[in-house]
Write a structure and sequence with these properties.
single chain, 175 residues, alpha/beta, 28% helix, globular
């Protein structure tokens, strides 16, 4: 699988620390775009709010074009389906504050954004990333002014190695 264009998403907001870490570790090698929630949506799962008219906007995060939607992570993927003219090669969702494993997947907005994005054909494949963090950080309001420096080694370097290995070794549809 050749990967050039990557859509970054998640449930911690368009300027979340996790997305900004991904920008820092991937921007030199890949064409990146962001489509994410306006605000923190941890635990929103795959909910879609059809009955609500959503506000949206365009901005730039650490030099990368971004679009935000005032809705759930699944709402963002539905919006992105109409917003972007051509599909991406890959979706990366996260790096989420808090681990998305086991029973937590059912309520994970990070997981749901990736699954919905693949489902609406924004990209054929997705990688979902998360990091261990205290529960007190799970509802953190992220600001673009927040420094990511302390996160570049962990989870940054770990995520970079994992993502590069998945792409380079075409780790999809393998047992």
């Amino acid at each position: 699988m050749h990967v050039k264009r990557i859509l970054l998403t998640g449930d911690d907001s368009y300027n979340g620390i996790g997305l900004r870490i991904l920008i820092a570790i991937l921007k030199d090698k890949y064409e990146l775009k962001i489509a994410a929630t306006l605000d923190q949506q941890s635990g929103a799962g795959g909910g879609i709010t059809f009955q609500k008219e959503h506000k949206w906007g365009e901005t730039v995060v650490d030099g990368i074009d971004a679009v935000w939607v005032d809705g759930t992570p699944a709402d963002v993927m539905e919006f992105a389906q109409g917003y972007y003219e051509k599909p991406f090669d890959l979706i990366i969702s996260g790096i989420n504050y808090g681990l998305n494993t086991g029973y937590a997947l059912i309520s994970s907005g990070t997981f749901s954004a990736a699954v919905r994005g693949v489902g609406v054909k924004l990209a054929p494949k997705a990688i979902i990333t998360s990091m261990s963090s205290p529960i007190s950080d799970w509802q953190k309001k992220h600001l673009q002014e927040d420094s990511i420096k302390q996160f570049l080694e962990y989870p940054g370097e770990v995520a970079k190695k994992m993502i590069y290995l998945c792409i380079e070794n075409n780790n999809w549809n393998k047992t």
